[in-house]
Write a structure and sequence with these properties.
Elements: H1 10-13, E1 29-30, E2 35-36, H2 40-74, H3 79-83, E3 98-106, E4 118-128, E5 133-139, E6 144-147, E7 151-154, H4 157-175, E8 181-186, H5 187-196, E9 200-204, E10 208-210, E11 221-223, E12 226-230, H6 232-240, H7 247-268, H8 274-290, E13 291-294, H9 302-314, E14 319-322, E15 327-330, E16 335-338, H10 341-352
Parallel strand pairs: 3-8, 5-14
Antiparallel strand pairs: 1-2, 3-4, 4-5, 6-7, 8-13, 9-12, 10-11, 15-16
Length: 358
C-alpha cells in the first residue's frame, strides 16, 4: 500500500493563533486553462480604462447632440432670411477667404411689438485661412448709397424697404464684394452674449447719460467714465449710443468695445478645459438663441460651422478693423454721411488685403 500523505499540523491547518487557515498564494497561471492570469492591479486598470472610455463615448455623444441642436437653432431661418439666399454667392474652397454680412437689428424704444425691426449695424467680416487674418468693415447706418429700385438713401433704409435681400444687394453693389454668408443678430442676444462672459471691462471716456423722462425716445443709459465692467444692457447702450454725437463717434465706441470684448473672450476662453466648458456652453447657447446663419444653399453644416469657429479661434489675435473715411452732410433736420469713391475703394482694399495695413 502506498504510504498515506502526512497529516497537516494544527499550525498548518489554521493560524498559530487559531485564525482560519491561510490560503496558499494563487499562481499567476490559470491551471484550469493553462493561461497566464493578469495580476489584480492590471485587471483593475483595464476595467477603469474601459469605464473611462465608455464615459468618454457617452460624453462625446451628448456634446455632439448638444452641438447639433445649437446648429439647428442657428439654422432655423425666418422667411426673410431664406429669401436672401438668392443674393449670396457660391462658397469658396477651404483655402480661399470667406465674406459674411452681419446685420444687427432691434426694435427702437416706443415702436411697439408690431413694428418692423430696423437695421442698426451693418458689418462685413472676412476670414482668410491663407493669410490668417480676420478683417472687419463697418458701414455707417446713415451712409448715403444708391439702393436698387429705391434711389439714394441712408444704407439702413435698404433693410427697412426690402429686408435682408435688399440690404445684401445694396452692400454688394456699393462695395463690389461677393458675400457668401448672411448672419443676422438680434440685439437681445448681444446682452446674453456679454452676460455669458460675466461682463466686459471697457475704458469709458466720458459720462454717458440719458433718461427718456427728460425727453427723447432713445435707449436709456447711465454710465460714468473710467475703466469698469459693463453688463449686457450697459454694453449695448454704450455701443449704440449716438444721440448727442454722430455715427463716427459710435463707430469709434464700437471699435473700443470690440477690442475689450475680444480681450475678455481671450482671457476666459484660453483653452479647451473643464474650467472653460461652462463659458463655452453659455456663449454657444446665447449665440444659438439670437443668431441666424445662411449661405446660398441654406444653413452651413455642423462640420462647416466647426471649421469656421476653429479657424476664427486660431487667428483671433489677428483681427483688423477697417474704417471708411466719411464726412457728415445735410442739416440738423436731415443729417447723413457721405464718402468719396476713392475713400470707398481704399476701405475695400484694406478690407480684402488686411496684411498690407498691419
Amino acid at each position: 500500500m502506498p504510504p498515506e500523505p502526512p497529516s497537516q499540523s494544527a499550525s498548518t491547518r489554521s493560524g498559530g493563533d487559531g485564525t482560519p487557515p491561510r490560503k496558499p498564494p494563487r499562481s499567476i497561471y490559470d491551471t484550469r486553462r493553462g493561461k497566464k492570469r493578469r495580476p489584480r492591479w492590471a485587471r483593475i486598470a483595464l476595467w477603469t480604462l474601459g469605464s473611462l472610455l465608455a464615459t468618454a463615448l457617452v460624453a462625446v455623444f451628448v456634446v455632439g447632440w448638444w452641438v447639433h441642436g445649437l446648429v439647428d437653432a442657428v439654422g432655423n431661418l425666418s422667411t426673410d432670411v431664406k429669401a436672401s439666399q438668392t443674393e449670396l454667392h457660391n462658397l469658396p474652397t477651404s483655402s480661399e477667404p470667406t465674406i459674411a454680412l452681419v446685420v444687427g437689428s432691434d426694435h427702437r424704444s416706443g415702436d411697439g411689438k408690431g413694428a418692423a425691426s430696423r437695421s442698426d449695424t451693418l458689418m462685413l467680416v472676412r476670414i482668410d485661412p491663407r493669410t490668417k487674418y480676420i478683417s472687419l468693415l463697418s458701414l455707417p447706418r446713415d451712409l448715403h448709397v444708391p439702393i436698387p429700385g429705391v434711389g439714394v438713401d441712408k444704407i439702413n433704409a435698404a433693410y427697412s424697404d426690402g429686408g435682408y435681400k435688399l440690404a445684401l444687394r445694396t452692400v454688394e453693389d456699393y462695395t463690389g464684394l461677393d458675400v457668401n454668408y448672411l448672419i443676422t443678430v438680434d440685439f437681445s442676444g448681444f446682452t446674453k452674449l456679454v452676460g455669458a462672459f460675466n461682463g466686459v471691462y471697457v475704458p469709458v471716456d466720458q459720462y454717458y447719460y440719458h433718461d427718456n423722462a427728460s425727453g427723447g425716445n432713445y435707449s436709456q443709459i447711465n454710465i460714468p467714465p473710467g475703466y469698469q465692467k459693463l453688463n449686457g444692457l450697459d454694453s449695448l447702450a454704450y455701443a449704440r449710443y449716438r444721440h448727442t454725437d454722430s455715427d463716427f463717434y459710435r463707430n469709434a465706441r464700437q471699435q473700443v468695445f470690440l477690442k475689450a470684448f475680444q480681450q475678455r473672450a481671450s482671457d476666459q476662453l484660453h483653452g479647451i478645459g473643464i474650467s472653460e466648458l461652462g463659458t463655452y456652453k453659455h456663449v454657444a447657447e446665447a449665440i444659438a438663441a439670437s443668431v441666424q446663419v445662411t449661405g446660398p444653399d441654406g444653413p452651413p453644416s455642423v462640420p462647416t460651422m466647426i471649421k469656421y469657429a476653429t479657424t476664427a479661434y486660431e487667428i483671433r489675435g489677428r483681427a483688423i478693423s477697417v474704417r471708411l473715411d466719411a464726412q457728415t452732410a445735410g442739416d440738423a433736420t436731415d443729417s447723413y454721411v457721405v464718402a468719396t469713391d476713392e475713400a470707398r475703394r481704399q476701405a475695400v482694399f484694406a478690407f480684402t488685403h488686411p496684411e498690407s495695413v498691419v
